[in-house]
Amino acid sequence: MRSVRIPVLLVTALTLLGGCSGAPDPTPATGPGALAHATGDAAASNEPTPRPTPVDVRALTPPELQNRWWSWAGSTPMERNPVADPDGRHCGEGQQEGIWLLAGTFGTTTTRHCTVPAGTPIVFPVINMYGKSSDCLVFMNDGRGSAVLDGKNLPLEELGATQIRPERVPGGPVSGDRDFNNSWACGLWVRLDGLTPGPHEIVVRGSSGSFSTGVDYWLAATEDPTAVSKAQTDRTGQPAV
Fold first, then answer.
1. How far apart are CA 30 and CA 193, in angstroms?
2. Is the domain of 43 the same as that of 90?
3. Does residue 183 lie in a domain region?
4. pTM value > 0.90
């Protein structure tokens, strides 16, 4: 959660001793010293918010990576769920600092427009599932897919059956009423170190058996954290830059 720094103006009071009562008579400080102090506080309040430290996505183990993604996808209700997202309006839902996650679909092909922080590592599945360990074996034997960034093929990483214990919304669109914890996850994954500022296209296609999924991602990578926050808040589905 972002913290908001509230500048505090410290006003020095001169205490004047008056008559027999000895009661203080506070008077606001004036002059160059007080002005310099106020200016310093104002300048400090305009300092840019430090960027979060990027997550080393290359160092994430298969359980860490898949737990992260399934917790993100499974802890959001249907009306804001990134997997059910029709156009990118929920791209920023539940994102954590230092990493950005992208989602596939529940079996359809769609186009999404998203504003993302430039330089922040990105992780997404080309195709994935959870269930029993034996389900993963069958799924991965027939799993196929591709991910293309700005016309260049990205390397896919095969993650076999991995036990996960993710967070979830009971009855949510990802887990339904099935047991989510202590299940097994697998899939074809992509890890990116981050995007340079500007527009980018990621085309994702995946299939296994009769199931297929696809997303055309139009990403506006920006170094302006305000633009990312706005895109996360307004959920218009349109890039802010």
1. 52
2. no
3. yes
4. no
CB 162 within 8 A of CB 61: no
Residue 4 — very low, low, confident or very high, per pLDDT cuts 50/70/90? Answer: very low
Residue 205 is part of which domain span? 57-234
| pLDDT (tens digit per residue) in 134-178 | 999 999 999 999 999 999 999 999 999 999 988 877 777 887 766
Q: What angle do CA 229, 233, 238 make, to 5 degrees?
A: 85
Contacts 24+ apart (CB under 8 A), 164-170: 164/63, 164/66, 164/67, 164/70, 164/130, 165/67, 166/67, 166/70, 166/71, 166/74, 166/75, 167/71, 167/74, 167/75, 168/70, 168/71, 168/74, 168/75, 169/74, 169/75, 169/76, 169/77
Residues 6+ apart with CB under 8 A from 154: 147, 148, 190, 192
52 inside domain: no
- Count up the domains in the chain and report the number: 2
